[in-house]
Amino acid sequence: MFSRLLLFVALLLVPGILRAEETPVEKAGFAKRLTIYLAKGPPNACGAGCDRWIAIEGEIDRNAAARIRSFLLAVKDPQLPIYVHSPGGNVEQSYAIARFLRARKAIARVGRTRVGACSAGTEIDAACQKIKAAKGEVEAELTTRNAMCVSACAYLFVGATDREVAPDSVLAVHNSRLMFVVHGHPPPQVVADFRRREMVSADRDRNLFLAAMGISHELSELIRTVKFENLHVLTRPELYRFGIDTRPLPETMWAVEKETRPYVRKIAQQKKGDGSSFRMMEWRLFCENKDRGRLMFVREFDEGAAGKSMVVMMAGATRTVAFGRLPARFGKYEVWSDPVSSDIVKAMLAVPHLQIGESTPSSDGKADRKSDPKSDAKADVKSDIKPGFTTFDIDTTGLEQGWTQLLASCPATSVGPKPATPLPAAVSPSVNAVPAASPAP
Length: 441
Hints:
12 helices, seven-stranded mixed sheet, Immunoglobulin-like, globular, 2-enoyl-CoA Hydratase, Chain A, domain 1, 441 residues
């Protein structure tokens, strides 16, 4: 009898999927249809030794899974990284794509692909979509800055076995909305009961899906608390705790920031203790003239550390890049800034990793003078970072290309001494912020 009263077509969709001349998805810079294509960029565009990747972008429509599967089956290299930039879409299609990615043992990252041939228009106009749909590789550039994978896209993303969410990109979730069409005039209580049963079923399906993907049940519990009209950007501790991105030191590649005074920037988030918190860090390299640069290091102030610590960077085992002096304080950030000669910059470009050392304050609140690298420098001692310093490595991917771009516009000589740049009130506004391109809830 129930089936004779109602005919429902139920779909789980992202906000504002209204078939109009221009949907909210298009206004936010996303195509209405999920697009997949091969992209090729400059050397190391997608990591050390990587210049080719698979781009998946746009709204996850009702036929997306079949297209994604067909495309990926034709790709000879199953380990090409997949970069996703999507506002979400159909949940069931996302589940299907995720399961295929899991069977493929795919590598997935949140990132935006920018096609050079589309520069005359937009990334979603008909001409650009035709370029992306053509067979073969598309010349493109890749960035994680302001890239996003939200709503149902998060389900697609967790299907990969190797997942990375860069510190300047976003993974966000919310509860789904059940949309259906009612034929006839059933009693309101019948409609309400159907809606309730369908949402219970959707919750059960989500729980089973996330468990199969090895994701903590805490994520499903969180999703239930986020209204469809809102979005919850997963914090770095949540990404770590839920098992989505468990890297202890997620980092971006070095990339040029085209500000009034351009610079090359790298952002990293360092796990503290059990992963319940992460500390943001940022490096900026400026070109002051052809013979000298300026290196700036920014990190969140560690309230739990007593006294003042010191920072040193090494390019290889014997080359000191910069010594940390007493940092300036800007809100919750500490800032070091040091000039670096062209020889030191060359040393930085010549190694795959830079070693960062931070001194451990002694019990009296002062840095351990026995392991003070500045004292070693005065004595012209060439050695590794001394005991008493905690160390970690950051990679240099993108640094050489970025520095080459800076040199092209760098003056031959300095007009006079001046600071690299006044720091804004928010030292790194892109970190842990929803990109401006995100669709309105």
